[in-house]
Amino acid sequence: MTLHQINRPHYTSPVERDWLLSLQDGDSVLLFESGVLRSLKANPTMTGLSIDKSVTLYVRSCDVKAHGLSVDESVYTIIDDNQWLELTASCERIISW
């Protein structure tokens, strides 16, 4: 399993395309820093990933709080820094986009 770490709300079109196309069934995506803005309910791309590609979506709790967001916990798993470390340790590969 690969952990894709996303820390920006938007990337240039080529990078956005590349990271989305690199996702495989069973991969995980962590949204952190400003990347948590992708968790807004109006973002169908992120919600579709969990359904279409069986991707597990995580958001870092301190970043969600820092941006004053509420997250749909039926789509995203909220994790703290210790859980982030455990997640990275459990993954075969980690890609920071």
UniProtKB/TrEMBL annotation:
Q: Which GO terms describe its cellular component?
A: cytoplasm
Q: So which domain of life are we looking at?
A: Bacteria
Q: Which InterPro entries match?
A: DsrEFH-like, Sulphur_relay_TusB/DsrH
- Give the protein name, as stated in the record: tRNA 2-thiouridine synthesizing protein B
What's a BP term from Gene Ontology annotated to this protein?
tRNA wobble position uridine thiolation
